[in-house]
Amino acid sequence: MARVDLAFATVTFKRKIAYKTTWLFSILFGGWSLLAGLAVWSQIIGDGELGGYDWSAMKAYLVIGFLTATLAWAGSDWEMANRILDGHVAIDLTKPVDFQRARAAEYIGGMTASVPAAILGTALAALAFRPAPPVSALAALLTGISVLFIFPLAFCISYLATMTCFITQRFLGVQWAKDSLVAFFSGMMVPIALMPVWLQGVAWALPFVHFTTTPASIYLGRVDTAGALGLIAAQAAWAAGLWFIARLIWARLVKKVTIHGG
User: Fold this and answer.
1) pLDDT single digits (tens) 242-255
2) Residues 66 and 122 sit within 8 Å (Cβ to Cβ)
3) DSSP structure class, residue 171
4) At what angle do helices 115-129 and 20-45 cross, to 10 degrees?
5) Which residue from 187, 211, 210, 188 is spatially nearest to 199, judged by alpha carbons?
6) Cα distance between residue 262 and residue 177, in whole Å
7) CA angle, 112 as apex, 60 and 190 as ends, to 5°?
């Protein structure tokens, strides 16, 4: 099965890199968003600090947010959704391939194609804006591990969103809602530490916070080593939990295809 997964991922990876303008666009679009964020927060923070972030730390937070956002939205939501909306899922059911694993391989293959753009953009931002360095070499390593968990988390959340197509027969509104939730509750838009206490509690109870706030918190030393390991464990737990929840939901929804498709 691993060879099949790799084949699916490779095909999607090659399809993505065939359109090199996508790489350039992702860097430019994310770069403009990063510049806008830097301009706004530089005026808000100035020479002081806000929510425990001074200007150097906020620059690091924004650069990490650029990296995680580039990865989080690099998957192929619409490719998964269209398989359901166009009825191709009925054909997939006749193949000796696990539907969820196949889509995961394709999705992560697409995300992998964005890695060069994400690394290049992050490196350029770090050179240009001189953000705060990681608090330690161990924090840098744990930050990297935390970023890796964005791949399974992004897939599981997107996969769950696309399965609503069985019921809604539409996906655009669902995608907007999913992207808005990720952007807000991850801390990409506004750091979680600046939100009201009750809203912080809501954010930390959801998986979205692990896209940006978790790696940034580890990088900047806002949690100690034990706390960092705990956050990474929470990421792993969310990824595993959402994966099995998706399988349970799929087992129920696929009956609609079986009943109507024969």
Assistant:
1) 999 999 998 888 77
2) yes
3) -
4) 30
5) 187
6) 33
7) 30
User: From the CB of residue 129, how many other CB atoms can be counted at a distance below 10 Å?
Assistant: 16
The amino acid at residue 65 is G
Which of 46-55, 156-165, 202-211, 221-230 has the least mean pLDDT?
A: 46-55
How far is residue 82's CA from residue 215's CA, in Å, rounded to a whole number? 32
Q: State percent of the chain over pLDDT 90.
A: 44
Res 7 pLDDT > 70: no
Domain with 120, as residue range(s), is 2-261
Q: Where are the beta strands (DSSP E) in 138-256?
A: none
For residues 32 and 40, what is the distance between their CA atoms, to the nearest angstrom? 12
pLDDT of residue 184: 94
pLDDT tens across 100-135, in order? 888 888 888 878 877 877 788 788 888 888 999 999
Token pair of 41 as six digits: 């927060």
Give a three-class secondary structure readout of 36-84: HHHHHHHHHHCCCEECCEEHHHHHHHHHHHHHHHHHHCCCCHHHHHHHH
Q: What's the sign of the alpha-carbon dihedral 87, 91, 94, 99?
A: negative
User: Tokens 């770069």 identify what position?
Assistant: 31
Alpha-carbon span 118 to 15, nearest angstrom:
18
Element (H, E) at 240: helix 225-261
- For residue 97, give both structure tokens: 């391939």
The C-alpha atoms of residue 24 and residue 1 are separated, in whole angstroms, by 34
In terms of Cα–Cα distance, which of 125, 136, 117, 39 is closest to 74?
117
Q: How many structural domains does the chain have?
A: 1
188: left (phi over 0), alpha (psi -120 to 50) or beta: alpha
